[in-house]
Amino acid sequence: MARSLVDLSSILLLGMAVAAAIIQSRPFMLSGLRYERPYMLFFCYAIAISIFSTQANLATSGSEIFVLNRFVFLAMALPYVVNSERKVHKLTRFLFALIILQAAIGMLQLIGGQTVIDLFRPNDYSNVLTGDSRSFTSNRGLSRNMLIGSMGDFISFGYMMLLGMIFAIARLKRGTGTFALLLLFLTLIFFSGSRTIFLAALVLLALYVFSRARLIWRVAMVLITLVVVPIGFAILTQLAAAVRFEYTNFLSLFSTQMISALMNQRLGHLFLYLPTLLGDPMVLIGFSPDRSLIERYIFENYSQQLPYTYLATFYYTLEDFYPIALLSYYGLIGTALFYLAQYRIFAGAKSDRTSDSPVLAQAATIVFWAIIGINILSLGNQSFENRGLSFMFWTSVGLYASAIRCSHFKNELKTTEARSPSQRFKTI
């Protein structure tokens, strides 16, 4: 029940901000990022497609929509609560402190092993609002030790450490401390056990270094990559062939057995399911976010085109390649609205990274790299739906919107103070 109340708190906070604006007879202003309209259109479209899809389970669809969008309203409400750059900076530091705390717990678990990890194992639960049950990966008797912090599972912990890398990159003061933090977070991601998040972290770090380098170094990095990556892949493939294949082993990622396994999961969604879906007229509007409905549909209509071994795992793995899951749920219309909202946030953050305001530049940098990171992760996980990652991301978006509003207010104040006394009098 407590977890459900936390999810609802963002909606309640936005409702309070709207009510205050109505009571005070002032307009309810949008953030300036221009993502609210396409996102609200997406939200309404998701609800509409769930209602009008008569074969869909409305409770299941509603649960999926709720989980995906539960913290978006927090981002919309924060600019009306966090109304100064000092508050933006303090809250940003507080979020980073939460990540550091998770990293400290992860280090204790890495050093102490299974005994310490057992102290932080969570209880499985059922959501009283949505009816969904949650069984944490740390409770499933897996044979490997997984760093979980206090997040409940290694995926959520890995997400938090990747966010730690992003916050470290965006620090107002950079130096050797930043390098040490990046190394710490990358190490904890590796030992958390998630190969997908570790590879995403390496890609994100490479993109960051590439974006900071001069043109001549960028060219050199590209040339080196073209040589090193094929050689490294060949070496890792040979090493993987020399050891016993285990799905949880990092080296197994480069074995031929892994490719076969992934063809029944993520690669199968991309190379088998997606081409078939794009040829279906239903791809325009989507099926609704009810996986059971989609599973029945593809068994009835695609069974001749798709292998049975792939179809047998479809229900459990669809969201592991989240862009294709979005396309299945909401069609081209809904997916376009979803990514349009993200693009508008991304475009604004890309521009504001070089702002004269240190607080705005930091907030924009966090959001810029977080959007890149969360979209890379979505190719191998349900990153958009993860509670911790979603909360931190949309809180960061809200703080970025607050920083924009505060920066604009300061600029307007400076402009007003720069006018002559007679000019200022005329504007009152």
UniProtKB/TrEMBL annotation:
The chain crosses the membrane at residues 6-23, 39-59, 65-82, 94-117, 146-169, 181-209, 215-236, 267-287, 321-340, 360-379, 391-409. GO terms for molecular function: ligase activity. The keyword RNA-binding does not apply. The keyword Transmembrane applies. It comes from the Bacteria. This is Lipid A core-O-antigen ligase. Keywords: Ligase, Membrane, Transmembrane, Transmembrane helix. InterPro entries: WaaL-like.
